């Protein structure tokens, strides 16, 4: 893969006509090391946030050995990319054929569920296997998160007793899992969820071997700066220590966003300006789904050889398709003299950005380049020495 120092080096050298995904393996490495070293348990990478095989390998090389997968295509991808990785199939509603293939062909032993039907399905599809790790997903509040995952999945607290009891009979190891919603803005989200877990365990009076606090760990975006990740870990560690579970019970988490948000940005070109609206060559059907559909703001930077000294103004973006929905309201703060032909770097698109790209209207093509500079924002301590020593390995 080609590499450049930064967006400006790339834009000056290549004047790219199509958007370019800029990847920063050192940023993903730093995030993975952070979880491996500071989370006192096991961190599974949630593959859906960004399934790029290059990223999977970077995470693996940095000590992430377990992967949270949600579809048979993700199972096959991880099996192919990292044959020694351990996969956990954490979607609570799976096709029976997918469970069978995952279990018999790819060695998957960990499955989540939130109904008796799903438990029966797993038992049937695996031929009454006696080596299953079964994680019962409990519904928790998404109130502290920017993106809810609360309505779709999770057993109600009053259904947990029967489910935990039945899963205990079928499981070698029994777990409880939840998801507080994505981009949880306060550690209190986990404290409250752990209280539900405690109540469910006490009521069911079963031995629990795994407590999986799911994803939801935040990244940093304009207007959404969360407290340090360490404070999330402290809250989770404390709650875990006080649960009525076996002495050897394991603590798991499933970060998606936090491991890869800083991994990628996108370099786009302005094709037209109409007042405070910029028509750019990537959009809602490309890497900017969240910017369009949930009004997410991402950091932006005008990429010009001679920095503009015009003051910043708020702009909105239109994407390249012939569709009014292809609009990102922002506001995105850029120098007042930005115009056609200018390049803009849009940061923090490593999670749920590049992964969402479609080819709608003929605009899916992108190239990918490695850059060595720092991401436009970071939740991790900047260790310039580590970052620059990694450049040579790219
Ligand atoms: C999406 C998802 C994750 C990752 O969530 P983030 O908010 O990106 O950390 C983890 N676990 C499950 C079950 C998920 O569906």
Automatic annotation (TrEMBL):
Reaction catalyzed: L-ornithine + H(+) = putrescine + CO2
Cofactor section: pyridoxal 5'-phosphate
PROSITE patterns assigned to the protein according to its UniProt record, in alphabetical order: ODR_DC_2_1, ODR_DC_2_2
Keyword Chaperone attributed: no
The UniProt record lists the keyword Transport: no
InterPro entries: Ala_racemase/Decarboxylase_C, De-COase2_C, De-COase2_CS, De-COase2_N, De-COase2_pyr-phos_BS, Orn/DAP/Arg_de-COase, Orn_de-COase, PLP-binding_barrel
Keywords: Lyase, Pyridoxal phosphate
Pathway listed: Amine and polyamine biosynthesis; putrescine biosynthesis via L-ornithine pathway; putrescine from L-ornithine: step 1/1
EC number in record: 4.1.1.17
Orn/DAP/Arg decarboxylase 2 N-terminal domain boundaries: 42-261
Domain Orn/DAP/Arg decarboxylase 2 C-terminal: 267-346
Pfam family for this entry, one: Orn_DAP_Arg_deC
Top-level taxon of the source organism: Bacteria
Sequence similarity: Belongs to the Orn/Lys/Arg decarboxylase class-II family.
Protein's name according to its UniProt entry: ornithine decarboxylase
Organism listed in the record: Sphingosinicella rhizophila
Upper lineage: Bacteria, Pseudomonadati, Pseudomonadota, Alphaproteobacteria, Sphingomonadales
């Amino acid at each position: 893969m080609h590499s450049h120092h930064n967006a400006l080096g790339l834009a000056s050298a290549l004047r790219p006509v199509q958007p370019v995904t800029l990847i920063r393996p050192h940023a993903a490495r730093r995030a993975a090391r952070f979880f491996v070293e500071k989370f006192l348990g096991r961190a599974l990478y949630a593959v859906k946030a960004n399934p790029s095989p290059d990223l999977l390998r970077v995470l693996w090389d940095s000590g992430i050995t377990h992967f949270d997968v949600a579809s048979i295509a993700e199972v096959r991808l991880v099996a192919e990319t990292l044959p020694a990785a351990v996969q956990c199939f954490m979607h609570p509603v799976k096709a029976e054929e997918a469970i069978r293939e995952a279990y018999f062909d790819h060695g998957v032993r960990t499955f989540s569920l939130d109904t008796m039907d799903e438990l029966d399905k797993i038992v049937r599809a695996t031929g009454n296997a006696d080596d299953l790790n079964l994680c019962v997903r409990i519904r928790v509040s998404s109130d502290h998160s920017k993106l809810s995952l609360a309505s779709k999945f999770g057993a109600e607290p009053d259904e947990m007793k029967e489910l935990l009891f039945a899963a205990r009979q079928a499981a070698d190891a029994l777990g409880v899992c939840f998801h507080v919603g994505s981009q949880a803005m306060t550690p209190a989200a986990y404290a409250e969820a752990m209280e539900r877990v405690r109540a469910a365990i006490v009521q069911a009076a079963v031995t629990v071997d795994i407590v999986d606090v799911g994803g939801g760990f935040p990244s940093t975006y304009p207007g959404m700066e969360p407290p340090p990740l360490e404070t999330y870990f402290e809250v989770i560690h404390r709650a875990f220590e006080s649960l009525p579970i076996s002495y050897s019970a394991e603590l798991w988490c499933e970060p998606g966003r936090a491991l890869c948000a800083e991994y990628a940005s996108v370099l786009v070109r302005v094709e037209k300006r109409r007042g405070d609206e910029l028509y750019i060559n990537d959009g809602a059907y490309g890497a900017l789904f969240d910017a369009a559909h949930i009004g997410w703001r991402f950091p932006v930077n005008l990429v010009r050889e001679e920095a503009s000294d015009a003051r910043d103004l708020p702009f909105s973006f239109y994407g390249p398709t012939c569709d009014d929905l292809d609009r990102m309201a922002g506001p995105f703060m850029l120098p007042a003299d930005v115009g056609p032909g200018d390049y803009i770097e849009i940061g923090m698109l490593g999670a749920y950005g590049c992964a969402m790209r479609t080819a709608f209207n003929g605009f899916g093509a992108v190239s990918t380049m490695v850059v060595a500079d720092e991401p436009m924002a970071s939740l991790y301590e900047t260790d310039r020495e580590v970052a620059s020593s990694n450049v040579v390995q790219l």
